[in-house]
Amino acid sequence: MPTFKTTFRVSWVDTDAAQIVHFSNYFRYFERAEEEFYRSLGFNFESLSRESSIILPRVEAHCNYRNPLKFNDIVEIELSIKEIREKAVKYLFKVYNKTEEKLAAEGHLVVVAVDKNSMKATKIPEEIVKRLMPYMET
Asked: Whole-angstrom Cα distance, residue 19 to residue 70?
């Protein structure tokens, strides 16, 4: 199963007084990986909204914390797709601390395609589904 990977360094602003990444920032990291993933596929949140009138609100978010990330650690996030439904996608994330070679966290997000004008769930455009399919877990 192909996965998408992105790497970055933990910023000071993401940490608490002990220089450990605050738990809430893992969800920001998930979104950062999702944004980079879409960019690698040739579209982004802005183009989805502008060209397809679609926004992708989160309807479920979950994270299991395994080992802490600290200021200046190198982070690698691995994204794959667990499920694509007519109107929703479930992304899986693994967050690795590459500095210490440990799994830091794993979790998922479920996003729903919503027509930004009617604010109702809508079918994910076929062209987008085609680009997502290679990253489906088997």
From this structure: 6
User: What does the longest C-alpha to C-alpha distance in the chain come to?
Assistant: 47
- Closest by CA position to 48, among listed 61, 59, 35: 35
Closest CA relative to residue 108, chosen from 138, 63, 55, 58? 63
* Residue 84 burial (CB count, 10 A): 16
CATH number for 4-135: choose from 3.10.129.10, 3.40.50.150, 3.40.50.720, 1.10.3130.10.
Answer: 3.10.129.10
Per-residue pLDDT of the chain (138 residues; tens, 9 = 90+): 689 999 999 999 999 999 999 999 999 999 999 999 999 999 878 888 888 899 999 999 999 999 999 999 999 999 999 999 999 999 999 999 999 999 999 999 999 999 999 999 999 999 999 999 999 987
Q: Residue 130 has which token pair?
A: 């085609």
